[in-house]
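Ticket reopened. Same input as before:
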Amino acid sequence: MMKTYIMVKLTKSVVKRIITVGLILLLVCAAVVGSIVLLHGAHIDVLNPQGEVAMKERNLIVFTLLLSLIVVVPVFTLLIVFSLKYRASNPKKAAYHPNWEGNRLLETIWWGIPCAIILVLGIVTWQSSHALDPYKHLDSNVKALNVQVVALQWKWLFIYPDQHIASVNLLEMPQNTPVNFSITSDAPMNSFWIPSLGGQIYAMSGMSTKLSLVANKTGDFKGSSANISGQGFADMHFTARAVTPADFDTWVHTTQQLTKSLDETSYNELAKPASVKAPLFYKLSDQNLYDTIVMKYMMPAPTNSAPKATTPKPTNMNMNNMDMSHMEGM
Amino acid sequence: MSLLDVVFGRLTFNALPHDLVTQVAVVGIVLLGIAIIGALFYFKKWTWLWKNWLTTLDAKKIGVMYIIVAVIMLLRGVSDALMIRAQQVVGAGDGGKFISSDTFQQVFSAHGTIMIFFVAMGLMFGLINLVLPLMLGTRDVAFPFMNSVSFWLFTAGMILVNASLMLGGFSPGGWLGYPPLTELAYSPGPGVDYWIWALQIAGVGSLLSGINFLTTILCKRAKGMTMMKMPIFAWSVLVTTLLIIFAFPILTATLGMLGLDRLMGMHFFTSGFGGNPMMYINLIWAWGHPEVYILILPAFGIFSEVVATYSQKRLFGYKTMVLALFGITFLSFVVWLHHFFTMGAGADVNAFFGITTMIIAIPTGVKIFNWLFTMFRGRINFKTPMFWFFSFVVTFTIGGVTGVLMAVPAIDFQIHNSLFLVAHFHNVIIGGVVFGYFAGITYWFPKIFGFTLNERLGRYAAYCWAIGFLVAFLPLYALGLMGATRRLDHYDPSTGWQGLFIVAGVGVVIICLGIFFQLLQLAVSIWQRKKNLDITGDPWNGRTLEWSVPSPAPFYNFAVLPVVHSRDPFWEQKEAAKAGHHPARPVYVDVHLPKNSGFGVIIAAFAFMVGFGLIWHMWWLAIVGVIGVIVCVIIRTSDDDTEYTISAAEMERLDHGHNTYAAKEQYA
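Engineering reply: fixed in the latest deploy. New output:
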């Protein structure tokens, strides 16, 4: 019986190639194993949406990513194929056309295909920008909850004007009920973000931005500020807690019974720069508190240039005119 | 007000650093400074330094100085990056405090400011100075003295940023210093002022450079080099300078207004009293978005040269490349709002800016395909710059995809200001800008220093940067989607972020290893320079004019100014020589070159005084500085004797000393 021996000459270049391929495989394996270990059990909020808005935004991410693969895959493939085939050290000499400097058809293709992709994506962008406009109230047959959000140094104050209560660093809301947030800041600029429920919007002093979200599942979700606002910025996280409507009513009722109340004095105390570890709860005794906070920055300049903590009462201005919608032409 | 207050403004001993990390850094810098100054005295090198370097008006030397400053700043910026990551690795829960929150804020602000203004801009101006006149076939830039002023203003700004380490601390407001955080009400200290005045001074330098290079391109090209025969690198510099000229005045005005708010209690951008921080955010991005293209377009230009040279083939789609550059330039001015979709503009506005943003992906994508098809049917020499190109295509494409994602406003709402964003812009800035400039430095190094850089160590560096980059920044995409925002110095352990932060930290260490290989590469290459001497002046079988002169390029660049007939003049010249056509005998003429001038250094020193005086409210110092600058400019402009002449005979002698044509005889 004949035996065939496959002789592989272990020349220096072959060894080198084996080492290179081995190293690349090792790196890829390490990356895969590493990501599995690290991401196992981790909660990727944006990709695991708990509300309608975040769900639509997640789907948009996936769609855009897949669409861009139309360009990415050819780029990576061509890069590797051309690098290998046309390398000067390639023993199988490939074609060499040093004076070839253009081809109208080819160039039309790679102007055309990206144009087509961007056309599709542009249409999707236009529609999704309107559909997911943070200012748009969500469609629902449940009456929306109004929450006024104030970014402070360095905590979040949530005022429930209709329930006459307020809380700090805990945002309680009923499941499947749209929440219409009015957001302002009595601090440097912040950004209000609950990744499990959907997109963020800036919190700025002297104005009121808007955001509508809904939690379709119950649970505790992370919320934070996404814009640097000073030393205690990292502590500006809060819990967004979605509960059943019945539980929400109970919570509202309990909070309304509290003796600790939020008025201008206790607010000014709260607004002093400091972080808050455990959530705080108040019954709301000053119905106009949110408007007062926004208007505080609308006052004429006093002799002292820094904004004062003590605030004069606002005149009877309609706050709806103070929102950002008039800035649209900007 | 006591005399002490008048003399020192608000500068007191309290301004000295309080925390250990900064103290160690300051002591280190001071000792290093003393050592360098001592060495200069000991070896009696002051005159040499002054005559050969500090006062030089030779664009190539100014370019080298830019790159030296940028590399030193790269080391500072990377140290900042290491501190940020180290703090985030230990920052799960309240336990780990490697650096205080206050220091942390200064560190990330300094990291961004230094990396953009003093590393990326420095490398860019450095490379342009090194090669632009050579590529255009001219002896110098249009305004050699202004070039020196630009460089020294850049250096004055750099020193101001680093002085903050020693005296008073840096801005806590991030690299773009959004008000109202950077207003007096929230940041009364000198940190923000350091940031403002360092950027103002460096920014004026950048604007002057922009004007200088644009004029150089428009007026100083070699005979026969029409616009459409310019190398793509020159085109990329042309559009970059247009961007600089239109964008930098916006930065100057914006910072000026913020400065007035802080110095004179005005209310341009304050929270109250009619101030509007949103206006600042619009203005700063009206400069800031073009700025990122100011950085990336020259890198595109470099890759266009590198890919064509190493593929030994003409660049594919030259006209399209020029068109794409102009497309990107125009579009970069109409996308700034995408940096703040979350500020509450309406859906129409957001959608408009989202769509203009994603349109930029079209010309950029076209450029990538053109580079790939430059490789197609080429003969690719995989030298180090091609490894940088390879890593660039991979990382930049990933960055492009995440950029398109963020261009959709509804998606941006979910990832804005998260670590996803941080990963995205590092993806395009490291993968695009930094890799591009490293490729350029490796490529043109022999032209300036006369020997090539070590290949093996250069490859190792490229591997480490590419792998380190992926390890450091891919986890940040995941962290961003997990809800981690940028600039956090600690976080709750229950978030499960720590593991990914550790991986990201390892990535930064791998990048540091890459930097170590680069420094080693430089040291080894200098050590073994005899082995790597570039005798021919054309180590890569180049195509453009800079390779037609000997290496290192003589101070007069060209003994006889070249005449250009095609896009790849030197390649054509070599082909003609192969075919037996010998170049005509050179006709030497008298050459006028600029004399050295110390006014660049002196003007920058006065500008530094203005900045330092305004930061510390030492008004007399600022006034002295302003008067000093004006007087220096008047004296210099009234000096008519700024050039010296090399006679034709002397030029012939110099030229033969360099043995220019010996190299070309091998093709003859």
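Residues 52-85 of chain A form the longest helix (34 residues). Residues 195 and 304 of chain A are 40 Å apart (CA to CA). Please confirm and we'll close it.
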